[in-house]
Design brief:
255 residues; alpha/beta; Rossmann fold; seven-stranded mixed β-sheet; binds S-adenosylmethionine
């Protein structure tokens, strides 16, 4: 997956089809490779009430456009962390004039080295899947929070396209029974959730429609690998929601 992301952030700096795709699907081009549209980002701001003078961490920030947006909207200081150095360098260069509110660092979710008791908020948008050990990652994130700090996590779980419907444990789409919910309960971290499953379905349908339209441009710009990746996730989410075997939630965790 690391090779995919290296190629993804490198080629997107010189092409336009994926930027148009993001603008049309998510409402604005923030180089999304997750599944959160602008309404889902607004929901983070609404439920966390993050504001000026506070510090946030965006775990798996890519090239930092989402962290920059959240900081611009809230006035909070955001640190973005991602394991792709090219993406972090792009973020640093683009936001050099906002260095009082934005910092970016190369780091691995599976080798976190965060300062203790530093952040009021940790945001994770479609990135906890990359943790090899949810219990360990959650403990490390909790340690990096200030007392009273919170986490806002978008997380989806569902049947993969190659899994037979009868083999998938349907109850695991519930927010307290998927791998994140189970890990939070085991860690004794209380959480509240909002259900975004139907939004995820609608956005997957839209991705399919817009991808079909933009396919010639993706191919002409050498983005076929991204086209295939995004088509795969849109088809996978659509099929799984239709069989009642996919759930997407915003988790607000107050450890
Ligand atoms: C699905 S994308 C989500 C990006 C962004 N949060 C969004 O919503 O568009 C996953 C991101 O996590 C990063 N990532 C994947 N594995 C990682 C790891 N082990 N450590 C740090 N970042 C990682 C990828 O480089 C990518 O930017």
């Amino acid at each position: 997956m690391k090779d995919f992301y290296q190629q993804f952030y490198t080629i997107l700096a010189q092409t336009t089809a994926h930027a148009e795709f993001c603008a049309r699907v998510f409402g604005r081009d923030l180089c999304q490779h997750g599944f959160a549209d602008m309404a889902q980002l607004e929901k983070i701001l609404e439920v966390t009430r993050i504001g000026p003078g506070q510090r946030a961490l965006d775990l798996g920030c890519g090239n930092g456009l989402i962290a920059e947006y959240l900081s611009d909207c809230s006035g909070a200081h955001f640190t973005g962390l991602d394991y792709i150095p090219t993406a972090i360098e792009q973020a640093r260069q683009r936001t050099a004039a906002k260095a009082d509110r934005l910092a970016f660092q190369v780091g691995d979710i599976n080798a976190l080295d965060l300062p203790d008791h530093t952040f009021d908020l940790i945001v994770s948008i479609d990135t906890l899947y990359f943790s090899d050990d949810y219990a360990l990652t959650l403990r490390q994130l909790r340690q990096a929070l200030k007392p009273g700090g919170q986490m806002a996590i978008y997380f989806a779980h569902g049947r993969m396209p190659w899994e037979a419907k009868e083999d998938f444990p349907t109850e695991t789409v519930q927010p307290d029974q998927n791998p994140l919910g189970e890990a939070l309960k085991a860690a004794g971290m209380p959480f509240q959730t909002w259900d975004f499953t139907q939004d995820d379905y609608r956005l997957a349908q839209l991705r399919k429609e817009i991808l079909a339209e933009l396919r010639p441009r993706f191919e002409a710009e050498g983005l076929t690998f991204i086209y295939e990746n995004r088509s795969g996730d849109a088809n996978g989410v659509s099929g799984a929601v239709e069989s009642g075997q996919h759930g997407r939630y915003l988790y607000l965790v107050r450890p």
